[in-house]
Amino acid sequence: MATKTIREQYPVLSRQVNGHRLVYLDSAATALKPQSVIDAERAYYEHYTANVHRSVHTLGEEATGAYEAARGRVRSFLNAGADDEIVFTHGATEGLNLVAHGYGGTHLQPGDEIVMTPAEHHSNLVPWQQVAARTGARLRFVELGADGTVSLDAVRAVLSPRTRVVSMFHSSNVLGTVNPIADIAREAHRVGAVMVVDGAQSVPHMPVDVAALDADFLAFSAHKLGGPTGVGALYGKRALLAETAPLYFGGEMIEQVEREHSTFKAPPERFEGGTPHIAGVIGLGAALTFLSEVGMERIYQHDRELAALAYDRLAQVDGIEIYGPDHDRQSLVAFNVKGVHPHDVAQVLDARGIAVRAGHHCCQPLMSWLDVGSTVRASFYLYNEPDDIEALVEGLQHTVRFFHGA
Amino acid sequence: MELDELYREVILDHNQNPRRHGRLTDPSASQGLYNPTCGDRITVDVQVRDEKVADAAFDGHGCSISTASASMLMDSIVGQPLDEARRTARGFIDFITGRREEPPPGEWDSLAGVRRFASRVKCATLAHNALLQALDELQADPAHPESPPKDD
Ligand SMILES: Cc1ncc(COP(=O)(O)O)c(C=O)c1O
Fold first, then answer.
1. How far is CA A251 from the centre of its chain?
2. Ligand 1 atom, smallest distance to A90 CA
């Protein structure tokens, strides 16, 4: 599929913003939705609304069938071993909390160590802070390289026999780096730790194979790959999910309930208490189908090419500082315009129809490490094209003129 | 929306040359505030003498809207009696959040464009909230007795 054909699948791209064509460069925050995802959600509401796993009637059968088919789609998309290793969540944040509280909270002892980097999204940091405080475990941080990259040597330097958990992002939402998870997982396993992967930014942009990575847990969100908001999935190895405690107790997740105590279903139902976001799960399945049809390898190359182009073009603009490495970038560029606050940059770009993110990107420790309060971030996806980057560059030149009157 | 409706000349000027920027050596009260959406931090220092703002300054890094707004606030409150400084800050917050139609007297109408951008209201009112908290703290401190503010 050519980018033009792909773009036609995304209805939002046809709208105007402030009198300009929309240049959407904020997919790392949330991706646009293709028509097939919108149609899939709508079909559930229009044709077979029913609860799942409860109703014997036809609509109930259809809804349960579609819901479980989506589980199968996630399994094959991640190359997981079995459907029951896929838990539906409300997103990466819930997936990471489930691992931190449900697994970490029940396995960590005082003095045990949790290894991560200073570049984690708050969703992969704050849950572990909470669990560490409750269990007496300690957080250990891998030293970042000068350009923000995570090297295997730096990981080895903090691993110890006390390491029980290594929890790390796969692809950074600020630096655009990709961590060598397969190698890190091998080192983690060598010291007897479990490998938890925050796949929020990798699953949308590259082929992710949990078997090849030998990840123990991997969480991602549907909305960052074109699926609905408020839904996502957690992969967990069967043996580890069996030792994980649920976050929510109630309907759907129980087996037998008596007055004084209850027994729970096996994973994954054990972790899906209450009526789930059924239309959202079906939409997630449709989003994965769409991406698979385009081809993840192709999307991977496309996004990397755009990131490399953006880096090169922005590096030519006077007064722009880019954060992270100068090569091997995955799908985004974070930067600042000298003397202009990121909010102001984003505001001026918005007046030209260009949507970028300005802020700390839920990575305050990384902002401290970079010694900035916040940055601008332009992020790319399969529907972006080189013209979008040219629009960004022109917009930034205009921004500099606007504030510095050059 | 034309950009210069939001970024009036006055704002760009205050942003380029912020007035009373820095710290006071011996403030009667100071208050730091954090804007969690953008990671910006601002500190407002006030020096109070005879129930008046004798001196004021703000420090920290922010966007043009928050810098200009803080700069205007510092300029306008120096010399004002404390309850008038409070009224200035409250009046502006009410104006920007749409609780009142008329801006307080002074340069404040130059920030009127912010009213259309919910995401920027926090930026525009950060210094004002810091000032109000600093003055509240001062009032609670018996070393600086002051009559409670009248609600207006
Ligand atoms: C690296 C990373 N991890 C986790 C998350 C959290 O995702 P969600 O807000 O969808 O739960 C995000 C999204 O901002 C992210 O970029």
1. 28
2. 11
